[in-house]
Design a protein that fits this description.
alpha/beta, Rossmann fold, six-stranded mixed beta sheet, about 35% helix, binds adenosine-5'-triphosphate, binds magnesium ion
């Protein structure tokens, strides 16, 4: 018998159909991958299931009963928990307060039983094997820990069905392994999952069944064991998908960025040089220092020692503004925390960085901005209606594309990209790789920090591997290979190959 049956679901926003006669069936104890391109309708379907949105048409039965339309409390009471695509943590509350929000344990006369909640939180974290202090302020947790807390909220609810909407975007590889172990053990006990991810290896490692949506419609469903990545990708993107090799060796210019003996938060004595038009990959496990080095070059974290030389000018101090004026741009990791300005429109979110540095043109020309926006919309294939819609009305992957546009719009000479394809679907990723290669061809210098080695193989001229805050390898394109990079990033191979 099915646990969940969603049938003929239809939903429009402002007259635009974003779900058109979509059905989804999940059995108890099953891990069901919900797949589709950016903007296909995955999160919307889950928002309907969890009662965040109302459906226009269709029925939902869960555990043998009809689920009322648009009731969060009814969905929760029925046993559905939702880990949203964007983090929903209150930074000003403590960890345990976040965990028990609206489900507080109370004693006599409704008095909060703090001790019981803290003990319960500790027990849960122990069981999950994560070192999080229930008493810490949530705002002080690193992004990975916030994601774990978000997941803990769902596990805590003892749900029959847990929706995971891209749950691993801020986790490192070992955290992901651990998290998958947890999911499997809950599955053994009968919990079902709907799992949304754009990472193929995760889907094949975890899921039993899959359903593909494309352009608001149901396309296919079946057993993961009966399909493969290529078939699924074709279902997702249609016939337009091309996965051909795009990397080509290019001639490089002079050194434009030189980092010497750089020491800062979480890394030590880091040195490397980058030439004009070069694409460098950074990789390493979370905490290896990759992201921190980028943030330091960008002036977001202080330089504790060493120098950063850009186009011949050395700096021992840097601010974000001075870095930007010198032609450095940065796409930070975790868009909701660091990039998206939710009260602003798509257009405003796109031009904000350009205007911060373009002091020659202090006035904003709507027409000019709109024109540039339109060209990015086309180049990046951004699925949006009007440029004066709020950015938060876009799907996650399309929000990420707006952030890419924001920094491409600055025409930065050196572009630092921290996990730039977060939440971007497989087809669009290929387009973005091509774009990055084109930018380099035209003379832009780019550093991409990512955990995805295949991504580096596609675009990077060299790959610098970090381990515990040190550079342990500097591999040329021909040596970028999953096994080798893994060996270095886990410390199995020491020393520098630079
Ligand atoms: N609150 C909203 N207001 C207006 N449009 C919306 C709203 N929420 C979603 N949409 C639109 O519905 C469509 C489907 O979005 P949805 O978030 O479900 O996509 P998704 O499949 O989750 O994509 P992604 O992989 O990028 O997260 C998109 O075109 C999006 O812009
Ligand atoms: Mg989504």
């Amino acid at each position: 018998m099915e646990l969940l049956k969603m049938q003929h679901i239809t939903k429009s926003f402002f007259g635009v159909k974003v779900l058109d006669d979509v059905s989804l069936t999940v059995k108890p104890g099953e891990i069901h991958a919900l797949l589709g391109e950016n903007g296909a309708g995955k999160s919307t379907l889950m928002n309907i299931l969890s009662g965040v949105y109302t459906r226009d048409e269709g029925t939902v039965t869960f555990d043998g009963k009809d689920l009322p339309n648009g009731s969060i409390s009814a969905s929760e009471a029925a046993g559905i928990a939702f880990v949203h695509q964007e983090l929903n943590i209150f930074n000003d509350l403590k960890v345990y307060e976040n965990l028990f929000l609206t489900k507080e344990i109370t004693g006599k006369g409704g008095k909060l039983n703090k001790k019981a909640m803290i003990d319960e939180a500790q027990r849960l974290f122990d069981e999950m094997g994560v070192p999080i202090d229930p008493n810490a302020l949530a705002g002080e947790l690193v992004a990975g820990a916030k994601q774990v807390l978000e997941i803990a909220k769902a596990l805590h609810s003892k749900a029959k069905l847990i929706i995971l909407d891209e749950p691993t975007t801020a986790l490192n590889n070992s955290e992901i392994e651990h998290f998958f172990g947890l999911i499997r053990s809950l599955k053994e006990k009968g919990t079902a999952f709907i799992f949304i991810s754009h990472k193929m290896p995760e889907i094949f490692a975890l899921a039993d069944e899959y359903t593909v949506l494309r352009n608001a419609r149901f396309i296919s469903t079946g057993r993961i064991a009966d399909t493969n990545a290529e078939k699924i990708t074709r279902d997702m993107v249609g016939e337009t998908y091309s996965n051909e090799e795009v990397y080509e060796q290019r001639g490089l210019g002079d050194v434009v960025l030189k980092v010497e003996g750089l020491t800062g938060r979480g890394f030590e004595n880091v040195s490397f040089e980058i030439r004009k038009g070069e694409i460098i990959g950074f990789t390493g496990l979370q905490g290896a220092g990759c992201s921190e080095v980028l943030q330091t070059i960008f002036g977001a974290l202080p330089i504790a020692g060493g120098t950063v030389t850009i186009n011949g000018t050395s700096m021992t101090k840097e601010t974000i503004h001075s870095a930007m004026v010198r032609g450095v741009g940065m796409i930070p990791a975790n868009r909701k925390e660091n990039s998206v300005i939710p009260d602003m429109t798509l257009l405003e979110n796109t031009y904000i960085s350009r205007h911060t540095i373009d002091t020659r043109n202090p006035s904003i020309s709507r027409k000019g901005e709109q024109k540039r926006f339109d060209s990015f919309r086309e180049k990046l294939n951004i699925k949006a209606n009007r440029s004066d819609d709020l950015i938060v009305s876009l799907s996650g992957g399309n929000q990420q594309k707006i952030i890419l546009a924001r920094w491409l719009d600055t025409e930065a000479k050196i572009l630092l990209m921290d996990n730039p394809t977060q939440g971007i679907d497989v087809g669009a990723k290929e387009e973005i790789y091509r774009l990055i290669l084109k930018l380099a061809e035209a003379g832009q210098t780019i550093i991409v920090n990512t955990l995805e080695i295949p991504e580096l193989k596609k675009i990077a001229d060299r790959c610098i591997v970090f381990y515990h805050g040190n550079v342990v390898a500097d591999l040329p394109h021909s040596e970028i290979e999953e096994g080798k990079v893994m060996m270095y990033s886990t410390g199995a191979l020491g020393g520098t190959e630079a």
